Batch of 2 targets.
Target 1
Amino acid sequence: MATVLRRLARFSQTGLSAHRKNGWSFALPHSVSNHRNSSTSSKIKVDLDSNTGIAVMRFQSPPVNSLSLDFLTEFAISMEKLELDKGCRGLILTSAQPKVFSAGLDIMEMYGKSPERCSEFWRAVQEMWIRLYGSSMVTMAAINGSSPAGGCLMAISCDYRIMADNPRYSIGLNETKLGIVAPFWFKDTMMNTVGNRETELALQLGHLYSSSEALKIGLVDRLVPEDKVLSTAMETMANWFTIPDHARQISKSMMRKPIIDKLLASREADIKNFVSFITKDSIQKSIGMYLEMLKKRKA
Amino acid sequence: MATVLRRLARFSQTGLSAHRKNGWSFALPHSVSNHRNSSTSSKIKVDLDSNTGIAVMRFQSPPVNSLSLDFLTEFAISMEKLELDKGCRGLILTSAQPKVFSAGLDIMEMYGKSPERCSEFWRAVQEMWIRLYGSSMVTMAAINGSSPAGGCLMAISCDYRIMADNPRYSIGLNETKLGIVAPFWFKDTMMNTVGNRETELALQLGHLYSSSEALKIGLVDRLVPEDKVLSTAMETMANWFTIPDHARQISKSMMRKPIIDKLLASREADIKNFVSFITKDSIQKSIGMYLEMLKKRKA
Amino acid sequence: MATVLRRLARFSQTGLSAHRKNGWSFALPHSVSNHRNSSTSSKIKVDLDSNTGIAVMRFQSPPVNSLSLDFLTEFAISMEKLELDKGCRGLILTSAQPKVFSAGLDIMEMYGKSPERCSEFWRAVQEMWIRLYGSSMVTMAAINGSSPAGGCLMAISCDYRIMADNPRYSIGLNETKLGIVAPFWFKDTMMNTVGNRETELALQLGHLYSSSEALKIGLVDRLVPEDKVLSTAMETMANWFTIPDHARQISKSMMRKPIIDKLLASREADIKNFVSFITKDSIQKSIGMYLEMLKKRKA
């Protein structure tokens, strides 16, 4: 949290890019994104249309929108900014990369890193979920590609999910398939979406659901052709905007606050758990072998 | 509670109307209903058939069976009487008004009233739910008309719901649409009926479900032609009566007691919340404007 | 617990039957099963195939695999043994009796028995559930016959349920129909399987679901022809085995531990409840009449 706040402070000193006529769009200035990444482009593009009150966040971190510390920090900063902007009532998450919404947590953040760095990373993962699941905005995932693990978490933390009707795209919490375990707040979010029994199967089997399977169990709310995903989200948002914000926000909070509070109450323990697990020799070795395999596959 | 008990005491002093041959029916005597309302007729008609053990409660408070303090007090008194009557094993709620089961809480009880009166009203709303959701009788809603907000709460507090198969009738907790928020025990009852995810959508959007949508999500259990709603409830009740009462009651209590206890533990705070919200100038102004609009619509 | 442990101790002193080439199978030696039952055969046959890592437990306690104290003790011993066997990753429960998976708790254990014996019996019922619901193995019920009450509990305590597609076989917690009540942990297990609303109906009505109804509400996961039940379980198990055990086990525990802990925290109170209920004169009289009726039916 301290880290994110420090970054937020740094960010607000450097200022944002210029406002457009109706709304604004921004990319993080280099001073923020450069200190960790040589890429000069930001990982998330945000466009707010002040006519509609809808912000679109496009993930543009090639190749697969992995949730790196830089990505997550940008995400938290963008969320903070949008929450404070009275002209913004709704947020749509979508991907600018082909075939993938987000591939989930960046495995490079878990390999050969110091415990301090792992801890900072995990705090940023928590922060992403806390801000998104508890957002006062109407949040929608326009899922225009596959969405495993952390990508699935982002999607199910929104208020509504529209997915491209493409049998090659899948979504799910597939952690067990990789020998790791989704933390309890991933599980809680999944349970609140598809219920206890389906979550039991989903987590034990690490099942990746095809788009039509996902619709059937309620993991996503609607399937549309790929080129209609974003526009359908926009139209659906208009319907949600007919509800007075204040009443909707209290209703949402009533549903979601209990499980957010659960994480807030055990946040440090959850970080400790993650760090002690991920820094184990055996786990580091497994990840190393997995990365070797990936390299060979590419070659 | 104290108020309801005082009213119950007053009620039992004045006595009830005569018993019929097989069972009884009653209407509240004037001394009870008159002190608040000039209407000489009672708002709820209760008929108990001691041959079948089934009581039918007909809501007859024109035009839309609004849940006023008088209505709720009559309801609590009737429930108390039926619970104590060993000849009564089941209760069917239905409407004697055309096209509506109940329109929910009476908005006039929330406009221009003293905090004391608002507090008394809210306690009566709580009391209705506590008695109905925790009833030892088999309770069924014969939903022969629309059933928004508090009307929906009454329906989902029963053990079983049979609704008229009429696409013009709708049911749901639509509070957010009016800029207000369903309290946590409305939410808990809804969650226990349709699950977490559907409740999240239902409450955030204040969605009114058509009868067929309601069946699909499990908000009602069965659709039948309008003229069969009551008779189907009677037939279904006969099936429930094959189960020994005592075992069924303990099973029911095991399922429902936890969320009733939640309200009992925070009943006064819940009343305070309601009163402080509803007596706000801004809210009173909104209600006033809403009532003006209704008047104009009629004219 | 103490009793089960004593029995386990006795059991391990007497030793097990010989191992087969690839895996083993055992039947409890007489010294264990005889002291309560004159039958020389064991009530459960266990076969572990160490090639596949799958153990099959066949219930062979005629006529209907009632859960007697002896049966439950054998079950606990077998579970203990399999959990400790590193060659065993999965367990399939099925019946060697025609037309029935298990008829549930043995009513003879509840009739004319001392409070001490009733207490020992109930502890063994709890132990069965704690071991099965919390098993680290992949557990599957190959339901090749009817499965009421305690039989249903065993099935829903597994990770996956495959049932014979036979309309004459039924499954459900039908306790209320007999005038008794499923304890809270039966209820919790049911809720985790089919959700709150269906459990409310199921428990209040003591409903026995046909196989196709059971599939529809998610009480079982799959229907296959009767002669394919076991082989389908084997094939399904192979799919579950592709998931690393450790990650799957932690995920399972995350889902199930909370309700197991609830029973562990109130185990003695739960036993007291059962004993004081079952030893009541009125209940003993009811059971006696029920047994008389059964006798007459046979004659």
Note: The first strand of chain A starts at residue 19 and ends at 20.
Target 2
Amino acid sequence: MENRFDLNLYLVTDAPEKCRLGLLETVEAAIDGGVTIVQYRSENPNAGTCYSEALQLADFLRSRKIPFIVNNRADLALAVNADGVHVGQKDLPVEAVRRLIGKEKILGLSVSDLNEMEAAKTAPVDYLGIGPVFPTATKADAAPALGAENFAKLSAQSPFPVVAIGGINVERARVLRQGVPGVGIAVVSAICGAENPRLAAANFLCE
Amino acid sequence: MENRFDLNLYLVTDAPEKCRLGLLETVEAAIDGGVTIVQYRSENPNAGTCYSEALQLADFLRSRKIPFIVNNRADLALAVNADGVHVGQKDLPVEAVRRLIGKEKILGLSVSDLNEMEAAKTAPVDYLGIGPVFPTATKADAAPALGAENFAKLSAQSPFPVVAIGGINVERARVLRQGVPGVGIAVVSAICGAENPRLAAANFLCE
């Protein structure tokens, strides 16, 4: 695919046991609700299971023309022919990942403070995920929450499109978008854990 | 490198905190003692740390012309230009890994019972690791130990070179080699945990 993507409403998958529906059903519903890009993130150490899950999502999202990103593992991303990879500060170096996936695929990097932002400015990436903006229970090893104001300051320094992540609900998304026009909103539990993921996603898009 | 390797004494790295020496020092000493091939295996979830460790080992082993295999993550193997990848039954499918790494790199697969052996017979691999032969404390999720007799039966069915793994010490290695001439011996703690890894490795090669 071409290296074009819309970060507006960025779904990051939660562990299947934290989803009310199955993983694929959750993603389907979220897409129907308006999600613009999907990242598969799993802490399951069984890479075979991750492969099956990611392959299913990749096929579905390709049919819906929604970009599909795989967290952390570039090998998994390449094996299922995903559209990109997202790495954190403790994952393989972005430069190494860029060499592995080539220049056409989307590459995202997580940033949680000014030092990381400084280093990220020259990184071979397509977007930055900045957070956690608010406290989150989804990611065990998350850094301290930035708050909306620090998020806005960090975002202002980014030479790349930015997506906000961490504890974001509909109200908070509205506040963030007022502070940083055009910012993407990444959501995990507020969609995956919802009884109706389609409606949960759609609510993020209401003015 | 050419797809040639000697499984005779196969070192699998243990967690750095379980090595008496540093990781690189352990591997250096083990090579001096006669280890013929090295696999980097780490359960550290911090892939950035794994990258640093693997890169250091890759550079050293290249200088010593010893094949270097990376466990589980094909992306890490490619990023450090290792000579191959070793996957378990719960890792990415071997076919997917073979596509990622190309046909020149070495690909190994773990097998622990007859069903897995049956499936492995047509797998695009270069060798099989069979085990655990004896009870092991190194790998938390290891299957039940096969014992020397079942190991010999499984080995006899392999169309590929075989390396025995799991709880192997010098005495047991001797027994295994008597039962299965030419078998490779994989060792983790008996070398990594030794006060003198060079001597520990050399002892595996004494008749």
Note: Chain B has nine helices and eight strands.
